[in-house]
Amino acid sequence: MELRIEQGRPQDETGRLPKEIRCYDLLDLLGIPFRRIDHEALYTMEACEEVDGAAGVVMCKNLFLCNRQKTDFYLLLMPGDKPFKTKELSGQIGSARLSFADAEYMERFLDITPGSVSVLGLMNDKEHRVRLLIDEDVLNAGEFGCHPCVNTSSLCMKTSDMVDKFLPAVDHGYTTVVLTGEA
């Protein structure tokens, strides 16, 4: 597939979902510049590799997790190429028996569907049901990549803009975690 990097939101927003347009509206309102790559739907980190190469940034792996009782929900941002081990995370956040949360919670709390999980979905979490966890490697990177709540576009922006502008605007903090990906 041929990938083109565009600056900012699309000129023609015909056919784009309202939740994607809301992402662009908020980023524009906050003065957060971003690069955008439109592409076919991507469902796995492996499928993101070509986009990563074109963008010059590793897309974040965004995992939507919950505890066994399905009372606590977490959005984990980590480098896409780092293996995820639940046991390693559980101890750091004091929540045993983490698992992937059902799609119904993802849609209810973040207005996103599987394959489109993104930190930008926190703009829809008005009840603060989701706790954001960010791996230190993501925080230490100058830029990161994510979807605008749909998996047919990818955005690249400064990590500092996410932390210093976006998260305060959507009234969400974050917890730094240190993941090695080792057993």
Automatic annotation (TrEMBL):
Occurrences of domain YbaK/aminoacyl-tRNA synthetase-associated (ranges): 39-164
Superkingdom of this protein's organism: Bacteria
PANTHER family documented for this protein: PROLYL-TRNA SYNTHETASE ASSOCIATED DOMAIN-CONTAINING PROTEIN 1-RELATED, YBAK DOMAIN-CONTAINING PROTEIN
Entries under SUPFAM superfamilies matching the protein: YbaK/ProRS associated domain
Native source species: [Clostridium] aminophilum
Gene3D superfamilies attached to this UniProt entry: YbaK/aminoacyl-tRNA synthetase-associated domain
Pfam families to which the protein is assigned, alphabetical: tRNA_edit (PF04073)
Family: Belongs to the PRORSD1 family.
Name this polypeptide is given: Ala-tRNA(Pro) deacylase
